[in-house]
Amino acid sequence: MTQETSLNRFLSRTSKIPPQFSLPPYLIEGGIVFLIFIATLIINSRMIRYGLNLNFNVDIKWHLTWIQHFSQQLSEGILYPRWLAGTNYGYGSPTFVFYPPLAYYLGYFLKLSGFNIQDTAIILFSSALFLSGLTFYIYGRNKWRRIPALAGALVYMTSPYIAHDIYYRGGLSSIFVQALIPLLWWLTEQSFSGKKWRLGLAICWTIIALTHTPSLLLCAIVWLFYTLFFLLNKPWKAVVEIILSAGVGLGMASFYLLPAILEKRFVNIEVMKQVAGGVKYNIFNLTQLFSLIQNNHEAAYIFLHQFLAIAVLIIIAFVFCRRQSPILQETCHWSIFALTLTFFMSSWSGFIWQASPTLQMVQFPWRLLQIFSFVGAALYATVFSGILKLRLRSRFLLSLVIVGILLMNFRYFYQRSTEYIALRNPGKANVEHLQYTKTIMNDPYTGKLIDVKEYRPLLKNASSSPPVPLIGQPKISVVTGQATINIQQWQSYNRVFSVTTEKPSNIRVRTYYYPAWRIYVNQKPYALSMANDGTIELKLNPGEYRKVLLVL
User: Fold this and answer.
1) What is the pTM of this model?
2) Where are the beta strands (DSSP E) in 454-513?
3) 256/392 same-domain check
4) Burial class (CB in 10 A: 0-12, 13-18, 19+), 266
5) Which residues form the domain of 79?
6) What are the pLDDT digits (tens) for 451-498?
7) Three-state SS across 510-549?
8) Do residue 279 and residue 378 come from a single domain?
9) Burial class (CB in 10 A: 0-12, 13-18, 19+), 425
10) Residue 482 and residue 391 share a domain
11) Residues 104 and 246 both lie in one domain
12) I want to staple 172 with a disulfide (CB 3.0 to 4.6 A). Which of 63, 250, 359, 550 is the partner?
């Protein structure tokens, strides 16, 4: 047998060897989604195991109260419960005229599925955390490939601001916007490559608008400047069309946005400007940053933590990835983005915040840490993708730094999660807070829960303090005169009663005055007025009023 024949037989045999085994893309993507899910369980394990934190100096008590009452009124057949009739000890509140409803619809469906209020809140927080990782991965998988995108997603999920929002502030709605930020940026960039994505962009803006208003305002401002930046390398018509898509999205949310804007003159909403000392107090003075941290200014620590991580990543990019032009260029873009956000969170931008009453309504300029965290995670994925192209030794050493940043994030997340006593393991919790929490969970509908003061009605003297509801007051009472009252029906949006008076009488209804209420006496419209304590007052002459209808 000749040498040529032997070679031909060998090639024939080797040609039948199957190609190298590789998983289908859908299995790889499914595996990554599963990893993000497992990461969610690990990162949020403290809350899942021990329950919600008993830190009642912040927002979690309001969100629990609102889920309970929003769900109850949906069960009554009210499709959009703008007025929460049972809060403020039964005086009511136009809470969802001004607060976006989307997270509470999600809470309603979870409660409808049989979950109690605490498990509902835990699932909502965990879902937002999971979606934060998932949307970041979606944004980055084609931009940086799978491994850097997954690493960036994990950094984003463990970013200090998310930990602060979940475990300290209890920002239920704002944490969902945190999950939508990567999706917003992804849809924006996709919209330049195909018009079909612009509908998705519009819907994304609608969802953000219906989720958290301060985050909407800040995202809209930052996103607008980011989109205008594309004028440097994209057709101006495409940029304008994308901005119009955002306008369409906000237009679809106008059923919430317009009343929230037009009706704010009826309530004490201006008090939001003074929350926690107001905007001026909550702007970072970068020259005194360490003093702020020593005085337990947690947001200042979060900013410094994120800023130092960004600085380290920039140094790695310019020292070790300097020959990779695309990495350097992208690093420059994200660095400029980070520095711009730093300016707007610092005292240098104080004149801008002070000049705009609308901006002051966001209360804390450091809410921009939401987007700052996204920028940090994007820079992390960018630099990591550059590191993976280096030689093995450099790749190994720099990967240790990359892993170190992730571990520092996780360490902060763990510390934040263990800082407060949890509801399922209360130990020596504040008895008053613990009892109020149990009231929210077990007895929320008997007029024992308060609501935020910014949504209480303005009194006749607009310079007066907002009215203070009193617990245990009767639903209807006689202020002056003499009358017999019989309550026939008392629902959230419909109150029916009869009144018999022997002399001129002032009747007080334990419901805060709001222009949307209408009153009919014996089936005829009747003048509605506000009592000195902000409730509805009804002035009746002697007579018999068989049907007094108060309807919203």
Assistant:
1) 0.91
2) 476-480, 483-490, 494-501, 505-512
3) yes
4) middle
5) 25-417
6) 998 898 888 776 567 788 999 999 999 888 888 899 999 999 999 989
7) EEECCCCCEEEECCEECCCEECCCCEEEEEECCEEEEEEE
8) yes
9) exposed
10) no
11) yes
12) 63
